[in-house]
Write a structure and sequence with these properties.
TIM Barrel, four-stranded antiparallel β-sheet, 9 helices
């Protein structure tokens, strides 16, 4: 059975990938299963310089999910290229770095560096980062700022450019359409939803950053709805994200319109989950006599 999928000019061996920020730089997962099995690994978000992230508390479990306020802690581009990337390439993993700059200039420079690095064929731009030069508003919440950023990053990106969309807007499809018009090859849908937790003991927000990103099964119905809507309105490959915990969730996202999926919070529950999904996909295709993934993508729209 042919489980390959195409994201622009990039061919993945299967549609099962790992979401940025949920498996570090791949070394963490490699002790649990052969990470070369999965279609791709989206790395932890990268900045030019190392980032310490937010002060704690930074994570809390919620009903059917979790909230995090990590603050994009990462080792920085230099350490990634010198220490992290060689390990992944040696393992035979398709590496897709996640770009998480706090200014247009930082994002453009990260795209330029990564696009000129051997072994990297695609990057994912995280537009949910706060734009420090625009008062802290996320790039992905203002269509004008979003469009300007994607245009500039596209000019510096030689390979496949994937835009990780924010769900914290009125109409995600408008941002997907803008991404396509700027030359993006695909969109990831979606990033975490903003949530909040109040500590009733201190009568203050639990997180020092006040708000945090909600992920896990609690957001899956909303994420599937967004994938379905983007597929209907914008002709662009979609990578579905949001609360995937069972193999049935993989199929649901693909039938809604996702060409590939990312396992996120599920990695924290079961580090072997994405590897197991690869095997289950093969078994499903054989049982249902499915020759290509294209017959699954968008099947719910037929």
């Amino acid at each position: 059975m042919n489980t390959t999928v195409r994201i622009g000019s990039l061919e993945l061996k299967n549609p099962i990938t790992v979401a940025s920020g949920t498996a570090g730089y791949g070394e963490e997962l490699s002790g649990y299963f052969d990470i070369s099995k999965i279609g791709a690994l989206f790395t932890k978000g990268l900045s030019l310089k190392p980032r310490a992230g937010n002060k704690g508390p930074r994570i809390i479990e919620t009903p059917s999910g979790m909230m995090n306020s990590i603050g994009l802690e990462n080792v920085g581009i230099e350490v990634f290229l010198d220490d992290k990337l060689p390990f992944l390439l040696e393992k035979g993993v398709e590496v897709i770095p996640n770009i998480a700059g706090h200014s247009e200039e930082e994002n453009v420079e990260l795209a330029r560096i990564l696009s000129n690095t051997g072994g990297i064929n695609a990057v994912e731009l995280n537009v949910s980062c706060p734009n420090v030069k625009e008062g802290g508003m996320a790039f992905g919440q203002d269509l004008k700022i979003f469009t300007r950023l994607v245009e500039k990053v596209r000019k510096e990106t030689k390979g496949v450019l994937i835009i990780k969309l924010s769900p914290n807007v009125t109409d995600v499809t408008a941002f997907a359409a803008a991404a396509k018009s700027c030359g993006a090859d695909a969109v990831s849908a979606v990033n975490t939803f903003l949530g909040m937790k109040i500590d009733i003991g201190t009568r203050r927000p639990h997180f020092k950053n006040r708000v945090a990103g909600l992920s896990g099964p609690a957001i899956r119905p909303m994420a599937i709805r967004i994938v379905y809507q983007v597929f209907e309105k914008v002709e662009i490959p979609i990578i579905g994200i949001g609360g995937i915990m069972e193999f049935e969730d993989v199929l649901e996202f693909m039938m809604a319109g996702a060409t590939a999926i990312q396992v996120g919070t599920g990695n924290l529950v079961d580090p072997c989950m994405s590897g197991r999904f690869v095997d289950l996909l093969q078994e499903y295709c054989e049982k249902e006599k499915i020759d290509t993934m294209a017959s699954l993508v968008g099947a719910a729209h037929a």
